[in-house]
Amino acid sequence: MITENSGKIYRFKLDHNFGFGFAEIYDFTDISEFDGKIIYTFNRIDSEEKSDYDLKKITESGISFGPIRTVSFPGTRGKYATKYIGQRTDLMINEIPVTKEYHGLLINENNWDNLTKWYFSDKFEKLHSNFVNYSELRNLETRILSSIVGIATKLTMKKIIDENKKVSDFYDLRQMGNLNLFVQLINTYYPIELTEKLLTEIKN
């Protein structure tokens, strides 16, 4: 891990003027250049911008998402600019976390519980003998690469769901990008019973 790049915390804007979220970065590109950029997001969401932040209060709000692989570290310029808040020294991780993997393609199946060839990323050597029920690794992230824009959308969707609103009232789930983020979200961060209910928002 590249320590000097890790533990950095950024503020980013949610969709639909729903406020601001916070993300923490970990840099494992010294080990895996392709997917070694890892982000966690926090439960704290601010309705307005602030000029000063207490990092401890942000980190103590708890993790909402992660570890999410990202295509690039957040930028501080341009249309989707984030704001660098600061860097903490008490890092959460010091090695690449275990993820869930699927042996095949996640195509045409929105309920991942129906898929049978799931395995833990650290159990790949004897792949076929290590397939497990999805319930055993449901709350783990995949290694699907996301952008900060996608992460912001996913956190916005989570806020909508947690406020008992319908994601389909805010996003067109027929649009592939929105659909993929929605499917990833509900199959990882919500129990199967709620996931099945949320899947009814997808219209064919």
Describe, in plain words, how this protein is organized in 3D:
The chain has helices at 55-59, 148-162, 176-189, 192-198, and strands at residues 8-13, 20-27, 37-42, 63-70, 83-87, 100-102, 118-120, 145-146. It is of the alpha+beta class. The strands form two sheets. It has a six-stranded mixed sheet. It has a two-stranded antiparallel sheet with strand order 6-7. β1 (8-13) and β2 (20-27) form a beta hairpin. The mean pLDDT is 92.
Jot down its keywords:
globular, six-stranded mixed beta sheet, 20% helix, alpha+beta, 8 strands, 204 residues
The percentage helix is 10-25%
- Average pLDDT metric: 92
Shape: globular
Taking pLDDT < 50 over at least 5 consecutive residues as the criterion, the unreliable ranges are none
Number of helices: 4
* Strand residues, percent: 15-25%
Order of SSEs: EEEHEEEEEHHH
Spatially, the strands of the biggest sheet line up as 5-1-2-3-4-8
> Any idea what the radius of gyration is?
17 Å
**What structural category do the secondary elements indicate?**
alpha+beta
Largest sheet: 6 strands, mixed
List the helices and strands and how they pair.
Layout: E1 8-13, E2 20-27, E3 37-42, H1 55-59, E4 63-70, E5 83-87, E6 100-102, E7 118-120, E8 145-146, H2 148-162, H3 176-189, H4 192-198
Parallel strand pairs: 4-8
Antiparallel strand pairs: 1-2, 1-5, 2-3, 3-4, 6-7
